[in-house]
Amino acid sequence: MLDTIVASAKERELIAFRIAEQEFCVDIMAVREIRGWAPVTPLPHSPSFLRGVLNLRGAVLPIVDLAARLGLPATNPTARHVIIVAQVNGQVIGLLVDAVSDILTIGDGSIQPPPEVASGRVRTFVQGLVAIEGRMVSFISLDRVLPRPEAEAA
User: Fold this and answer.
1) 83 touches 32 (CB < 8 A)
2) Residues 92, 84: contact at Cβ < 8 Å?
3) Most buried among 25, 43, 67, 84, using CB within 10 Å?
4) 87, 84, 71, 112: which is closest to 17 by C-alpha?
């Protein structure tokens, strides 16, 4: 019984999603909801990865095109795309992705570090890699999705 409790304490749940035929995942504890795509209001002079803002029950929700933020081609959103609403560094943001595919339950030991040959930019966003059911899923570090204010000032 005690072994079961200790084993479950070392497991985590991740939400897997697709962007441009690649699979990524984030910690489910940061996710508040998953909703369909809705048109956004663009903001002038915003970074290219910031699609705009959305009114979410009276709150202004910034929408980040996660593909563009990760250095992939920008998304051309359709009704099939989804927004993952997540809590990141005390701020609620929306992440535009192609589709949510799965909920994964893995042990902490299943997360492997990105290879040393990966570029610094990849290592900035990818916290680790998860090999599950014959596929490789990149575990995204949500706290690095938004630029830090001190980095923007530099």
Assistant:
1) no
2) no
3) 25
4) 84
